[in-house]
Structures are given as C-alpha cells and as structure tokens.
Amino acid sequence: MPGRLLELHVENFRSLRDVTIPLGPLTVLVGPNGVGKSNVLKVFDFLAAIIRTDLQPALDERGGFDEVAFWGGDKVPTSLAIKLKADWTTHASAKAPDEYALIIRRRSAPGNRDAYTLSRQERFQFKRTQGRGRRITISGDEARVVDRRAGRESDGGKFGIQRLSSGLSTLPRLGRGDGGDEVTRVADRLSSFRVFDVDVTAARMPTRTHSINAGRLEPHAENLAAFLIRLSTDEERWEHLTNDARRILPQLDAIEFEQVGGFADRLAVVLRERGLRRPTPLADASFGTVRLLGLLAMLYDPQPPALTCVEEIDHGLHPQALELIVERMREASARTQFIVATHSPALVDRLEPHEFIVCDRDDDGASIIPALTTDEIRTIVAETGDQPLGELWFSGVLGGDLTEDEL
Known about the structure:
Helix content: 25-40%
Structural class: alpha+beta
Distance between the termini: 34 Å
Oligomer: single chain
C-alpha cells in the first residue's frame, strides 16, 4: 500500500477533547454507543470536506464552529486542533513522518458572547532526501515555506492566502519547488477518504445501464447494482466475492442481473437460491443480505480510497459472517487502510490485540481513546488465561461493560 496514516491527534472536536490514536492497516474502534467512535470517523469526513469546499464552508455545513467544537463543559472551547502523522510522500517513514496540523481559534466579540471571529493556523512538514525537510506554515493571510537542511533553515519564500482559506484546498496549486507535490499528495489522500455505511433502501435499487461504468462505490452503496455489474467483468474477483457470499448465505447459488420490467436500460441484482423456482430481486432480499453484499463490494473494490472508515460494521450481520469480514478486511488492508467502529463482542473475538482500540468516556462527556494501550491489553489477556477478547471486553475487564440494550 502506498503509505498510510500513522497517528491521529484531536483536541476539542465534538466528544474528542484530547485524544491521540495510533493507526495501523486495520484499526477497529470498540466501545458502547456514545463513547465517540463515530466522532473519530467524522474528523476524516471534516478534513475531506475542507479539501472539497474549503474551511469556512466545511464548518458552515456542520452548523458552525460551536457545533463542531467539544460539547462538554460550560463554555465553547477557544480552539480546535487536528493533527496527523503519515508516510505518504516519497521520503517519509515511521521515524520521519509527514505531519499536518490544523488549529482553528475562536475569539468572542467584546460585549457579545454569541458573536465571534475565527482564525486558523496550519503546518505541513515533509521529509526531503537529505536533512529534516520542508515546513510550510500558514497563519492569518500569509503562508511561509522553510527548507531545513544540515541544521540550517533557509527561507523558501512567502505568499498571500485568504484569511480563512485552508492550505489543504489551496496549496496544491503551489509549484513543485515550493512543496506543491507534497501538499498535493496529502490533499489527494485526505480527499479520497470514504466513510462507508450501507443505506439498505438505496442499495436495493436497480441501475440504469449508462451508470454502470461511472465512478467508484458510493459511501452509502447507493450505486451497489452498477458497481456489482462492473465488478462481475473481473472473473477472478467476482468468483471470490460470490464464493464469500455463498459461505454466509448457504442457499445462494449465484448473483445475477436482470432487466427490470422489460426496460432494456434498467438492470437489477437478483439472487438465484436453491429450492426457489424464481430468482429473488435484491429489492426483496433481507436487510442483512443487502448489507453483506454492500460490504463485500467495498472489500473487493479494485481501486479503493487511501482510507476507508466503516460505521458499525457488524450491524445486521449474523455472527457467522463476522469471521469472514475480518479475514477480508485484513486482506484488503494491503490496498486501503481501515478504521472501523463496532460494539460487537463477537467481532472483537476475531481480532488481535494490536487491531483494536478500546473506547470509553468520562463523566464530563469526553472520549477516552484509547482507554488501554496494546501492551496493557496483551498483559490482561495473558493474566486471564487467553480468554476471547470479546468476552473480556463485554465483561468490563477491557473497559466495555456493555448492557444488553447497548447491543
């Protein structure tokens, strides 16, 4: 895989008051409802929106700074920060990572606590062939490029930038010598992030033939029929996907496509099942079957984004399906990095200690992520006689302590 995110640090974003999360090829966020798992995914959605529309529009479509900032406490925080470490650019590594930081500051207007102004600071840092690399800082209406080599810093120049405009959306226009290539690589990775959550009603819909070759799998699998038709042209990949579906749906013989109501330009997914005299349209399939096909389509995507986030991946799936899903995520993580949210002990049972992060929440409404380090989890597992991880978490030994109504 061409580089990945190594670490996410967040301050004062929704429930994330101060969290630092190490990220591997597959990272599963484990915790009951309301501890902040979804807010971690919303950070990436926010960054992608900044690149698409810029900082102010991204804040506006989420209700403004006061809605995005930490919800706990008596007062709105005066700042919000998101920091990333990755090894996306050519010379980056785990020891010398690419770094990106965004800090948004809020200043109340004198005499009017409801009125405020915003400012932002950004920093990009990249490793060069020799020396410590290049740093680009943005503050106010100025961006500055600094080269750091052999213990010395040389001014690479400065230029104007709109006061609340983000470097993620504007700096890719820089020339190669000013760091444009590196910023473009970071922006491309962030903008391709996908928060995936199957909308079963939309995924059941047929497709028009002219849509079959258009685009990638949508974030809610609303183009599932078109994507599966396109995927079926790759015989090896399609055979693997179909075999996986049969493994979970033993009555399934084949996944096929048929015209809808005699319209040559409309095709629907149909399931050939043993014992039935007619195929089952996807529109009539069970919730779990549609969701399973959506997840398999995502996992067999030949051109996935750099990062795929999945909300409550276990939702609607039989526990028997979870082992397969975990297997396929591990395989697909060679092509796309995964951050997945779950509160299923059955799924946790199938994970290794380094693959999941326990999430909790304190009495002030702040998320505690991670609640335990990987080393602490390994120690607990060893001390409890290698009990299944899901059982340990469900019982509260790893911080879960779920009740039945949270499942």
